[in-house]
Specification:
The chain is α/β, with parallel strands linked by helices. Helix content is 39%, strand content 11%. The strands form four sheets. Strands 4-13-12-11-10-7-6-5 form an eight-stranded parallel beta sheet. The protein has a three-stranded antiparallel beta sheet with strand order 1-14-15, with no helix packed on it. It comes from Salinicola corii.
């Protein structure tokens, strides 16, 4: 009905305006409004969009409201705790700490403490005090000759290209001021990483950006030259990531400007595809050879791997590979399936991978059962935002944590979720120089350093309140998890049977572990 009426109404309105305009000429100026609207409506009558076809002109209101829907939800309808992936409560606390202002709240908790998924810990009548030196940890196993004294909290992998140059620069300057490390992401070491000299963890993805040959294979000589820089403290081989496990990447040619092309050693203006797996190795034995090669090229610096846990037997294959070859990684970063700072296929983000709180206990147990745990540092990367998040991750097996999105908040991100459009409203996740200028590098760097310090303060304070004097004393039983509307239980109750040191190498292997261990092999993943 509306569609049929539109013809008559627009024609009648324009005709009436013309007739009346003969007697009152100023009315003719309204044609500057009516004619464009009529043209839009008549175009809609042939639109492939069903709504516009049936409701020309006014149907655009539907698409306008849909466009602003995320902002309406975030600013007007979202509760303090319902936001995803980070709630308003979390974002406000991160920003308060980054600003150096108070982070106290009135009138008690607003969380539903009876709801499934709630974590809580028990305090002690006799609190402990965690010493300042416990905030640092040495990374470097027996085969590493240049170990790194690392903060317990570092900036997780985010590439230049995904983030703007100003965002990268602010994070690295903040890392320099706070004395912690900044992971480059797989987009290589950019001038913005190097400008202020903050400690770097160089991540190598499947495309070997920054040390690649023209055919996309690894370039050992270029790697040697860059990896021996004093600024590079560790090397990380990215096998998979939480946001899109077992998936390559594509940086559209429109985003590959000359600066990104130079940093990544690719052609400007051309689509840049990353393969889903590494061409330099195809099984655990070859991976360990690659680890040894990188350690030699980097002059003995720590070399580790990053992965999102998938098939349990495949991780045990890595353990068998280390045992058989005698080559060990210095650290393992476990990326939670709930993580991700950039764009990824939604179904990969939603449906693949093991979430961080389930992955950590398995990896910690597997390394212990293989007799490797005391030689390898375990890093948790996934939804680490506040001090209690670090408590949980340490209790589940992590030695240290990486955080990505909270550091984005510290440099101005508002969780607009426009990262993939190149139209980030805050200039954080864009290559538009006009938008990126919104980031005041010195001021944001101070926020990065303050947030880091305050988060470690929270980590230490809560650990002490639990009656402990060191982060290493945390165990799964210190975290009470409510899996349903029932009393909370220690995380240890949900794990696979806890393994003794080297138990996987003996005859007494518990049944759930035995099948995984038997399926693991060093000549395939």
């Amino acid at each position: 009905m509306y569609r049929q009426c539109f013809y008559f109404l627009t024609a009648a309105l324009i005709a009436a305006t013309l007739v009346i305009g003969i007697f009152w000429p100023p009315l003719l100026w309204s044609l500057l409004l009516w004619i464009p609207l009529a043209l839009v409506g008549w175009r809609d009558l042939r639109s492939p969009h069903n709504v516009l076809y049936n409701y020309p002109l006014i149907g655009h209101l539907r698409y306008l409201l849909e466009f602003v829907r995320p902002e309406l939800r975030q600013y007007f309808f979202e509760s303090e705790t319902s936001g995803r992936p980070f709630s308003r409560e979390q974002r406000n606390l991160i920003n308060a700490r980054a600003d150096g202002s108070g982070d106290t709240s009135p009138f008690g908790t607003i969380r539903d403490v009876d709801a499934p998924g709630y974590n809580v810990s028990y305090h002690s009548i006799q609190p402990g005090k965690v010493p300042e030196e416990a905030r640092w940890i040495t990374i470097g196993g027996p085969q590493c000759t240049r170990p790194y004294r690392s903060s317990r909290l570092n900036i997780s992998a985010m590439s230049f290209g995904s983030l703007s140059g100003n965002a990268v620069e602010a994070m690295n300057l903040g890392a320099k001021q706070g004395g912690f490390a900044h992971d480059t992401g797989e987009g290589a070491i950019s001038p913005y990483h190097e400008k202020h000299g903050g400690d770097l963890i160089w991540e190598l993805g499947t495309a070997y950006f920054g040390c690649r040959q023209k055919n996309g294979r690894f370039d050992a000589e270029t790697f040697r030259e860059k990896a021996r820089s004093e600024q590079v403290k560790m090397v990380e081989i990215k096998i998979s990531q939480g946001a899109k496990p077992s998936h390559g990447g594509l940086l559209p040619g429109a985003k590959v400007n000359r600066e990104i092309a130079s940093t990544r050693q690719i052609e400007a203006g051309q689509d840049c595809a990353s393969p889903s797996s590494h061409p330099e190795f195809s099984n655990p034995r070859e991976l360990m050879a690659f680890v040894a090669h990188l350690r030699e090229l980097s002059d003995g610096k720590p070399v580790g791997i990053k992965l999102c846990l998938g098939k349990h037997s495949e991780f045990l294959s890595l353990c068998k590979g280390m045992i058989e070859t005698g080559t060990l990684v210095d650290f393992i970063v476990i990326d939670g399936a709930e993580g991700g700072t950039g764009a990824a296929p939604q179904e990969f983000s939603d449906s693949l991978g093991v979430f961080i709180d389930e992955a950590l206990p398995f990896v910690d147990n597997a390394l212990r059962g293989a007799g490797l745990r005391d030689k390898i540092r375990l890093v948790a990367s996934g939804k680490v935002a506040l001090g209690y998040d670090m408590v949980v991750k340490a209790a589940l097996g992590a030695d240290m944590c990486n955080a990505a999105r909270p550091f984005m908040f510290a440099v101005g991100c508002i969780q607009a979720r426009r990262c993939h459009t190149n139209k980030c409203p805050t200039g954080v996740a864009t290559q538009d120089p006009k938008r990126a200028r919104a980031i005041d590098v010195p001021e944001k760097a101070e926020r990065v350093a303050r947030y880091h310090r305050a988060t470690l303060d929270g980590f230490a304070a809560i650990t002490g309140a639990m009656g402990l004097s060191h982060f290493d004393e945390l165990t799964p039983d210190h975290i009470r998890h409510r899996s349903g509307y029932a009393p909370a239980r220690g995380y240890g109750d949900f794990e696979l049977p806890r393994l003794d040191e080297g138990q996987l190498l003996g005859e007494e292997i518990p049944p759930p572990w035995r099948e995984h261990w038997q399926a693991a092999a060093v000549d395939r993943f």
